[in-house]
Design brief:
The complex is a heterodimer of chains A (443) and B (420).
Chain A: H1 2-8, E1 12-19, H2 42-70, E2 77-81, H3 83-92, H4 94-105, E3 109-111, H5 126-144, E4 150-152, H6 160-168, E5 173-177, H7 180-183, E6 191-194, E7 201-205, H8 207-214, H9 229-237, E8 245-251, E9 255-256, E10 259-260, H10 265-278, E11 282-283, H11 286-292, E12 298-299, H12 315-318, H13 321-331, H14 334-337, H15 343-352, H16 356-359, H17 366-375, H18 381-402, H19 409-442
Parallel strand pairs in A: 1-2, 1-8, 1-11, 2-3, 4-5, 5-7, 6-12, 9-10
Antiparallel strand pairs in A: 6-7
Chain B: E1 2-6, H1 17-29, E2 36-41, E3 54-57, H2 70-77, H3 83-90, H4 118-135, E4 140-144, H5 149-159, E5 163-167, H6 171-175, H7 181-193, E6 196-199, H8 202-211, E7 219-221, H9 231-234, E8 245-250, H10 259-272, E9 276-281, H11 287-296, E10 303-307, H12 312-319, E11 323-326, H13 336-342, E12 347-350, E13 363-365, H14 370-382, H15 384-398, H16 403-417
Parallel strand pairs in B: 1-2, 1-4, 2-3, 4-5, 5-6, 6-7, 8-9, 8-11, 9-10, 11-12, 12-13
Helix pairs in contact in B: 1-16, 4-5, 5-7, 10-14, 13-15, 14-15
The chains are: A alpha/beta (443), B alpha/beta (420).
């Protein structure tokens, strides 16, 4: 009886790492509209990607692989890699993809599902959302051999409504932020279930402990500096007995980039399993957590939340009128773009949707402003907006050049369907003709 | 606390930004109840607003003793000065100035402008300052711009009170680096004698520290602010004859203001879009060259020169504009973008302007980067969100840039130099 109780109250750490890189746009002046159709800053994208690959992704993957081997499969993590990051890794640092494949083979690593472009389409364009999730899922399966089963939306954006949308796609577990204004006195260290859809389990980020690693690890001003693995595991151990799940969700660049190698972040990571084992704390992937733990109660999240900034809402991407206009303009194209077969248009459509483009247009100041500035390739949000809108203007022209703009979407759709049907009919008749001919020849 | 200020211009008769800044600052400081200001200018016109400070005219300050009846003084001064004041000043004539040309009241005549014999006028102003400083009671001296530095130094030598000088511009800004040695020596002398130096931007502060060899500890930046717009101005209706967007440059057409970059950027915008007109309002020694340049670029049909605008006309022009642009090569501060933003006009300024240091909701570009300038213009006239964002956010931002706050910073400097 006692022993049973003990195993029931065993704590587990669920690590999930986000990997994303957008296709940053090159300086695109208005006089380029209509003449220049390549939008990306190859030099910047390549140098940033190679820098994070060498300083972070490769050594971190190596460390995790060694940890899995050393702990005989007891150390487990999950990754969510956006499609745009995969595309860029494939071009500029394919060895990173190889090392992820190696990790995938250990069976201790789970890959999560998200939108292909790390986009905000879940907020505006349901059809696009479905398309992108499917596209991403296919990509992950083809690279790592497993269809992702757990969903994580861009920047952990979530609401009840969004949860239903994801559930419709067949996912039963969703990761999101343990936002204080949603949880109130509740703890993020439990599995919850969606208030509108009891079949959907929610895993919530433990912000305090996650940010201790991501943001505060090498902060000399922090009163807990230096953070050691045994201290960190002690904190987890001291969490009340009944709280069994510690979700540590973070940007993968924490290892080696946001926290430099010299800060000792890799050694910290390496030492975690040892101390965890002493305290009987295990590691699990999100799927295992969902299978093992029962939800304690429904959690209602009527308004959209995310993991960004102090407010944990959407204001980082859609907080001002500039962002809203760019966003609305972009998604007014969705229906039409999906009728187009042109591959370059399809690709640009995805890349232009990355949430980062909107993040750069943020006019927030104060402490979070610095974060926006840190990641932005632009000096000011106005530059970000102008550049993006110029590119978008060109893209819109290209989209409308595909079909006459006098034809509206509905009409176009029916015309395309007619053509499609006729093509099918023709090929059917052709094959019939072939068989009759061959029969005739035989006869 | 009593301050004796020396200035050159005071509204409503102003020639440049100096007068506007002097007025705004003193008005902002007058909100401090325990502060009195006497403001000396070369030539008052009698219609200055004296409700919050006392104006002393150098041209009404006797430097040669003359026996004048009070009735005559009353008739001559109107409301500018009382006869008693005149007599009190007359009691403090400190040397024999009969070699100077003086009028029947024993006063030196001033133009109050920027005449060819400016250096002589500056010197005369300083002579009058000696009389005023001997008569007036004050705790601190405050000199606005180089024209009044000699007067400030004189007042300091006479009274032993601390001197604060206010650098609204340096000759490096006005001349794009080709400084006039005489002006430089007056500026440098003023700074050397000052107990503290106030600069209108960090840009100017750097110039003062590096080009005039001043100790950084003695130089403080107090950014300018802007007066709230009056009801009259608020009620001016924008004039829109065509559906075209209007992009406006407003200021002196001189080297310092970078007008040629504006013409080049306009040509770039017009290559791509037609529904836009460009306006260059103001006058200056480069006007003709700019007219030729616009013609050479083949954009004269869409590029207009209005000549010098004043008073209400300025606001009529601003209110009819969709974009205001100030591509100054070197601008110590530049109040006009703030005025444009006040009436809700999206604004583009050069990074080389002092006001760029405090404005967030304006587009900042390098003055020479005509591509970026053209792109910014295009963005504002093409993307409604950009226009609306800059219009509303810009206005609410400048509404918070108040002279009252600038005045408080100046006051802190007074307290510091007076050892309080």
């Amino acid at each position: 009886m006692f022993k049973n109780e003990k195993t029931l109250h065993m704590k587990t750490i669920c690590f999930y790492f986000q990997i994303h890189q957008p296709f940053r746009l090159k300086r695109y002046r208005f006089f380029d509209i209509g003449t220049e159709h390549y939008y990306y800053d190859d030099f910047n994208n390549e140098s940033i990607l190679q820098r994070v690959a060498t300083s972070s992704f490769l050594p971190a993957n190596q460390t995790i692989l060694e940890m899995i081997e050393a702990n005989k499969g007891k150390f487990k993590v999950a990754f969510s890699i956006s499609g745009t990051a995969l595309d860029q890794l494939e071009i500029h640092a394919p060895e990173v993809i190889d090392s992820f494949c190696q990790l995938a083979k250990t069976n201790c690593v789970e890959f999560l599902s998200e939108t292909y472009a790390h986009s905000l389409c879940s907020l505006k364009d349901q059809d696009e959302f479905r398309v992108q999730v499917a596209l991403h899922s296919k990509r992950i399966e083809s690279l790592f051999g497993k269809k992702p089963r757990v969903f994580r939306n861009t920047e952990l954006i979530y609401s009840d409504e969004l949860g239903d949308m994801v559930a419709d796609l067949g996912y039963k577990t969703i990761l999101t932020e343990g936002a204080k204004h949603v949880l109130g006195w509740k703890s993020p260290n439990f599995v919850y279930q969606s208030a509108t859809n009891p079949n959907v389990k929610l895993l919530l980020k433990n912000s305090k402990l996650s940010d201790d690693i991501t943001f505060r690890f090498s902060d000399h001003q922090w009163n807990e500096y230096p953070l050691t693995a045994d201290k960190f595991i002690d904190w987890i151990d001291n969490i009340p007995e009944n709280e069994q799940l510690i979700n540590l969700f973070m940007n993968y660049e924490t290892f080696g980039n946001l926290q430099s190698k010299e800060s000792g972040i890799f050694e910290f990571l390496k030492a975690l399993p040892h101390f965890a084992e002493q305290k009987g704390i295990t590691f699990s992937t999100p799927s295992e957590v969902a299978a093992k733990l029962k939800p304690v109660e429904p959690l209602s999240i009527p308004y959209l939340i995310s993991w960004a900034d102090e407010e944990r809402d959407l204001s980082a991407w859609l907080g001002n009128t500039l962002q809203e206009e760019a966003f609305d303009k972009l998604y007014s194209l969705g229906e039409r773009v999906r009728m187009i077969k042109d591959r370059r248009i399809q690709q640009d459509w995805l890349y232009l949707q990355s949430s980062d483009h909107f993040f750069y247009m943020s006019t927030k100041r104060a402490s979070d402003g610095a974060v926006h500035q840190h990641f932005s390739p632009y000096d000011t949000p106005f530059e970000a907006f102008t550049n993006y809108m110029n590119v978008l203007s060109d893209f819109i022209k290209r989209v409308y050049a595909q079909f006459p703009s006098s034809v509206d979407n509905e009409e176009l759709n029916s015309l395309l369907t007619t053509i499609q049907n006729q093509e099918e009919k023709i090929s059917k008749l052709e094959s019939e003709l072939k068989t009759t001919r061959s029969r005739k020849a035989k006869a | 606390m009593k301050a004796l200020m020396f200035g050159w211009e005071f509204p409503p008769h102003i020639l440049g930004g100096l007068g506007t800044a002097s007025y705004g600052l003193t008005k902002g400081m007058s909100l401090q109840k325990d502060l009195e200001i006497s403001f000396v200018i070369p030539k008052p016109h009698g219609d200055e607003d004296q409700s919050f400070l006392k104006i002393i005219g150098a041209c009404y300050t006797p430097v040669v003793w003359r026996d004048v009846a009070p009735e005559k003084l009353k008739e001559r001064f109107n409301s500018s000065m009382s006869p008693d004041e005149y007599y009190a000043l007359r009691d403090h004539i400190y040397a024999d100035f009969r070699y100077l040309y003086t009028n029947d009241l024993g006063c030196i005549e001033f133009s109050g402008r920027y005449p060819d014999n400016l250096l002589e006028e500056i010197n005369n102003y300083s002579i009058c300052a000696g009389v005023i400083a001997r008569k007036e009671q004050f705790d601190v001296i405050h000199s606005h711009d180089w024209l009044t530095y000699p007067a400030g130094i004189h007042a300091k030598n006479v009274s032993g009170k601390p001197l604060v000088i206010h650098v609204h511009a340096t000759d490096f800004d006005r001349s794009r680096g080709k400084v006039n040695p005489q002006v430089y020596s007056i500026e440098k002398n003023g700074m050397d004698h000052a107990d503290h130096i106030i600069c209108v931007s960090d840009l100017t502060r750097d110039t003062v520290i590096h080009k005039y060899n001043q100790s950084p500890a003695k130089v403080t930046t107090v950014h300018n602010a802007v007066d709230p717009v009056s009801k009259d101005i608020e009620n001016i209706a924008p004039i829109r004859n065509t559906g075209d967007k209007i992009v406006t440059f407003l200021g002196r057409i001189t080297m310092q203001k970078g007008p040629e970059y504006f013409v080049e950027a306009a040509a770039k915008v017009l290559e791509k879009t037609k529904h836009v007109q460009f306006v260059m309002a103001g006058s200056g020694d480069m006007t003709e060259a700019m007219i030729h340049l616009a013609a050479k670029r083949g954009i004269s049909d869409r590029f207009h020169f209005t000549g010098f605008l004043k008073g209400k006309q300025v606001y009529e022009m601003l209110k009819s504009s969709d974009v205001y642009i100030m591509p100054s090569v070197s601008e110590p501060f530049g109040i006009s973008p703030l005025e444009a933003m006040q009436v809700g006009v999206p604004t583009i300024i050069s990074k080389q302007s002092g006001c760029a240091e405090i404005l967030n909701n304006a587009i900042k570009i390098d003055y020479w980067d005509i591509e970026a300038m053209a792109d910014a213009i295009y963005s504002i006239i093409t993307y409604p969100a950009m226009y609306n964002f800059l219009k509303t956010e810009g206005k609410s931002e400048v509404d918070e840039i108040k002279w009252e706050y600038a005045g408080q910073k100046v006051r802190n400097i007074y307290d510091y130099v007076c050892g309080r």
